[in-house]
Amino acid sequence: MIYTITFNPAIDLVFQVNHLNIGQLNRVDNEDFVAGGKGINVSVLLKRFDKDNIATGFIGGFTGQFIISQLEKEGIKSAFIEADGITRVNCKIHSDSETEINGNGPIISEENFQKFLKFFKSELKENDYVFLSGNSAKGMTSDSYGQVAKLCQDMNVKLILDSNLDNLTSCLIYKPFIIKPNHHELGEIFNIKINTVKEIIYYAKKLQEYGAKNVLVSRGSHGAILVSQEGKVYESNVPSGNVINSVGAGDSMLAGFMAKYMEEENYKESLLQGAASGSATAFSTGIGQIKLIEELKKQITVKEIV
């Protein structure tokens, strides 16, 4: 089975505004309510690739129930732990530039987290896949991610990890199957500014020395670099298109990559699908649709560079 974990999901309230006037009344041209959070984004795209998965994490209140209902519409099963409080709402304003206002979400108690771990221990089976995406919720401790990562290692489960610097680096000792920093985050890990492909490859290999098996580095409009556990390095370009919403593009890249890898264990084809998936979401209001992903594949080239 495939599981996605979102500890602090959200409803993304997306406003399209022709011109945002700060301090004045603004009327929207269009609005969308989207079940958000990195793991939820992954769940949606996996399901569109016909990969059944279970979305889990923490939710609270009426906003949490909205997320469950949206997942049900996509045919996605959920197993969230109820927490006291209200699942957060994030406001995304797309105007002359993108403005984001993110909520906090409920505080997760130790009892909540232990209940989550108990559920996970009872459900996980060898060779399952676990996507651990996004950041901690309020109340969680610094070793929460490490506990999940260690459980995955103990159960021989493939861990797909996409989180902030601290969570990512603290989990490397548990040998995640793949991590996905962007090139800025990769530089932050080593406290440098990365400027070249050569530097990306060098520092991605450093992360492999620390425990990561595969390192997928997204580079925005410059494509992506994959340093694989088989010792090969692949580079993809990006297709042309109008960027509407960058939220969820990285999650879609990772989901698209893994959806193909689960079928073929082919890194080159997986990166091709991952790159198309990320771009499809960037060119859409919500998570990209399969039809657009297939169209964009025609514009993408993946080459082995090492």
From TrEMBL:
Q: Which GO terms describe its molecular function?
A: 1-phosphofructokinase activity
Listed A to Z, the keywords are: ATP-binding, Kinase, Lactose metabolism, Nucleotide-binding, Transferase
Kindly name one Pfam family recorded for this protein: PfkB
Swiss-Prot/TrEMBL catalytic activity: beta-D-fructose 1-phosphate + ATP = beta-D-fructose 1,6-bisphosphate + ADP + H(+); D-tagatofuranose 6-phosphate + ATP = D-tagatofuranose 1,6-bisphosphate + ADP + H(+)
Where's the Carbohydrate kinase PfkB domain? 11-287
State which pathway it belongs to: Carbohydrate metabolism; D-tagatose 6-phosphate degradation; D-glyceraldehyde 3-phosphate and glycerone phosphate from D-tagatose 6-phosphate: step 1/2
EC identifiers of the protein = 2.7.1.144
Q: What class of enzyme is it?
A: transferase
What does the UniProt function comment say about this protein?
Catalyzes the ATP-dependent phosphorylation of fructose-l-phosphate to fructose-l,6-bisphosphate.
Against PANTHER family, the record matches this protein to: 1-PHOSPHOFRUCTOKINASE, 1-PHOSPHOFRUCTOKINASE-RELATED
- Family in the record: Belongs to the carbohydrate kinase PfkB family. LacC subfamily. Belongs to the carbohydrate kinase pfkB family.
The name of this protein is Tagatose-6-phosphate kinase
Organism listed in the record: Peptostreptococcus equinus
Identify the taxonomic lineage of the organism of origin: Bacteria, Bacillati, Bacillota, Clostridia, Peptostreptococcales
